[in-house]
Recover the amino acids of this structure.
């Protein structure tokens, strides 16, 4: 088997008294779509943020794209390979949609502006909002903003995409347009790690689902198996609450 | 919205609704609207005050040439000194304030400590005392150091009043400006920094392209306030041998002894400069969209 693109071994992370991650281990292969779910405070977002080094783990091993994150000399080399989509979009409010997509391309990737623009236009077409290129983020709906955020991350050609509850801040009728874009990416074989409670998306797109609780991975498996026949009691209790909705 | 905007109404009670498919008939307001008016190019109504005070000063000089024309001709080089002093100090204050503000939020404990120490010490000493220290005490210190180290350029240092006044103003106002920039940077949601970093930008690129442009919009009103305060506080340099507007006024009065006319004109000249600055700042704020989301 090929080297996993993300290798996590027994990592720990605390915020003051709160022990957010208690020995998490996880390998993600190229092309996998991993969906992480669990109650709030279970450490799933923290795990995702550690992969991008937005949080620094205290102990354990975290290797992304062959680079050990602990003490990495150039953390930006890792971040360039990892795209991140946030719950609250975090688009740059002072820039147009087009500039949101091109800024990092020429600042970080040093692409000529014309080439950056071309990449941006292609990606905007892909997420279905070409006509909004010259709008400011405040002029867009939540669903449109999140699609721009996905396009912005993709513009850097990352080999891994991380999604941190990408639909939690959206009105119900906008969730589908974002999930559709994510599903397209999954079909194209992009490596994705998604923190989400969208079970429909997990069923349709995930190659593996992970249930986390109290800073640990409780159970993992293919979505069909995990949702219909969970082995652990905690997983069953949580799923019965979520799937009832 | 400008106070004038309150009286503008769209359509009016008799306006006919356009039928579907028909181009709406432009209202009088729409026809009169200049492109870009919403961005603040409409004349700010407070300009009338600038015009009124300027008119008053011109009237005094023309119709009461004795003594107002004489006073004006005598103090006008002081006006130039005040403006040059204000503009040159302010440019440096912005740089010091930016560095100080970044230092105050730095994770590096040494940088944070140095920046905090600077702010705490400087803002605890009156500006007048600081200016006097720079003019009377600093040259002596420089000469003593030069003598001790046998550096003749320093040992023979002669105080340059304007330069030391600028240093005094920059050191003092830089501390206040640091706090303004710190607050402005902290007001930007940390998700912006995280988004920039997760795209692979380093700290300085994220600051330069993402955080600071948004923080500038937030700090523009207090920074404008500092500019006007600085313009008035430059009058303190008149005690350290800088021939600014205030000092020139005092020199004229010492000869002719007409305090009412001299100090009224000096006050009005300061007022014109500060009112004009206030209008300029208001224009900048509108152009940068301060106050809109």
């Amino acid at each position: 088997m090929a080297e996993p693109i993300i290798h996590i071994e027994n990592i720990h992370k605390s915020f003051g008294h709160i022990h957010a991650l208690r020995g998490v281990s996880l390998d993600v292969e190229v092309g996998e779509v991993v969906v992480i779910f669990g109650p709030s405070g279970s450490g799933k977002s923290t795990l995702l943020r550690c992969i991008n080094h937005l949080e620094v783990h205290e102990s354990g091993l975290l290797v992304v794209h062959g680079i050990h994150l602990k003490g990495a000399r150039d953390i930006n080399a890792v971040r360039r390979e990892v795209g991140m989509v946030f719950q609250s979009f975090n688009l740059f409010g002072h820039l147009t949609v087009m500039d949101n997509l091109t800024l990092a391309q020429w600042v970080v990737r040093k692409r000529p502006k014309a080439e950056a623009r071309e990449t941006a236009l292609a990606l905007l077409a892909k997420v279905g909002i070409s006509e909004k290129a010259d709008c400011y983020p405040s002029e867009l709906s939540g669903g449109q903003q999140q699609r721009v955020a996905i396009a912005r991350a993709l513009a850097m050609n990352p080999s891994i995409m991380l999604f941190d509850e990408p639909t939690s801040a959206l009105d119900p009728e906008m969730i589908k347009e974002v999930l559709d874009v994510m599903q397209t990416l999954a079909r194209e074989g992009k490596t994705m790690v998604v923190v989400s409670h969208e079970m429909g998306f997990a069923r349709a797109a995930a190659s593996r689902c992970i249930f986390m609780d109290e800073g640990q991975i409780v159970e993992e498996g293919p979505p069909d198996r995990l949702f219909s026949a969970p082995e652990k009691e905690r997983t069953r209790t949580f799923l019965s609450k979520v799937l009832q909705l | 919205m400008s106070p004038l905007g309150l009286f503008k109404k769209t359509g009016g009670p008799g306006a006919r609704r356009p039928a579907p498919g028909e181009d709406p008939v432009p209202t009088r307001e729409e026809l009169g609207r200049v492109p870009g008016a919403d961005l603040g190019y409409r004349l700010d109504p407070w300009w009338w005050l600038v015009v009124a005070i300027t008119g008053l000063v011109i009237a005094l000089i023309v119709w009461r040439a004795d003594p107002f024309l004489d006073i004006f001709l005598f103090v006008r080089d002081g006006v130039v000194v005040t403006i040059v002093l204000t503009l040159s100090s302010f440019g440096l204050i912005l740089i010091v304030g930016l560095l100080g503000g970044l230092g105050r939020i730095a994770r590096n404990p040494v940088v944070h400590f140095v920046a905090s120490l600077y702010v705490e010490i400087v803002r605890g000493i009156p500006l007048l005392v600081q200016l006097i220290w720079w003019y009377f005490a600093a040259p002596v210190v420089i000469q003593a150091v030069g003598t001790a180290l046998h550096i003749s350029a320093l040992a023979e240092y002669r105080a340059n009043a304007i330069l030391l006044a600028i240093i005094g103003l920059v050191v003092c106002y830089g501390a206040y400006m640091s706090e303004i920039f710190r607050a402005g940077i902290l007001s930007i949601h940390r998700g912006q920094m995280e988004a920039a970093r997760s795209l692979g930008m380093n700290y300085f690129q994220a600051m330069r392209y993402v955080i600071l442009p948004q923080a500038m919009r937030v700090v523009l009103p207090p920074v404008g306030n500092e500019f006007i305060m600085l313009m008035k506080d430059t009058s303190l340099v008149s005690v350290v041998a800088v021939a600014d507007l205030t000092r020139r006024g005092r020199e004229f009065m010492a000869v002719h002894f007409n305090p009412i006319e001299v100090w009224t004109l000096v006050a009005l000249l300061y007022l014109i400069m500060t009112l004009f600055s206030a209008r300029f700042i208001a224009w900048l704020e509108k152009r940068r969209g301060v106050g809109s989301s």
